[in-house]
Amino acid sequence: MENRDLQQLVETISMEYFGKPFVHDAVFNNRLRTTGGRYLLRSHNIEINPKQYIAFGEDALSDIIKHELVHYHLHIEGKGYQHRDKDFKLLSEKVGAPRYCEMIPSLKGYKYTYTCKRCGQNYLRKRRMNTTNYKCSKCFGRISLTKIW
């Protein structure tokens, strides 16, 4: 997906869910790390994290766009556009915009996934560990390394 496709998608979602046009720019910003997108107050533009689209697909992208459009339309109308404002909460619920986006797994800091061979309990770890020194906390079964991120 390119910026022009994103612009078209934002305009479509704005008309479909809000009944109002989006007349500013929507672009992908590769520098965004921990957020799915952001609404810029001064320019009224919307920036979207392309890593969210790559990791979670178009459904997650449309949810992020709806969230940013809630900020956009409320700010344009002079209403409470911040997360803590009542207007924001009401409009978000009305259009089905999520409050937060899902975090990209590689940004959580977990590099290793260990699994119990007996009960299937998963353990996420940032550092590698010696599996002979540890047992499962639920069933005391053996643990093995199953995935490296």
Notes on the protein architecture:
With 149 residues, this protein is α+β, with helices and mostly antiparallel strands. Helix content is 36%, strand content 16%. It is built from 4 helices and 6 strands; from the N terminus they run H-E-E-E-H-H-H-E-E-E. A 3-stranded mixed sheet has the order 1-3-2. A 3-stranded antiparallel sheet has the order 5-4-6, with no helix packed on it. Helix 1 (3-18) crosses helix 3 (58-77) and helix 3 runs antiparallel to helix 4. The radius of gyration is 20 Å and the shape is elongated. It starts with a helix and ends with a strand. The mean pLDDT is 89.
Q: Taking Cα atoms only, what radius of gyration do you get, to the nearest Å?
A: 20 Å
Helix content: 25-40%
Strand content: 15-25%
Helix/strand-derived category reads: alpha+beta
Q: Largest sheet, if any?
A: 3 strands, mixed
The total count of helices amounts to 4
Succession of helices and strands: HEEEHHHEEE
Number of strands: 6
- Calculate the mean pLDDT score and round it: 89
Strand order of the largest sheet: 1-3-2
**Quaternary structure state of the chains depicted:** single chain
Show unreliable segments: none
Rough outline = elongated
Separation, N- and C-terminal Cα atoms: 25 Å
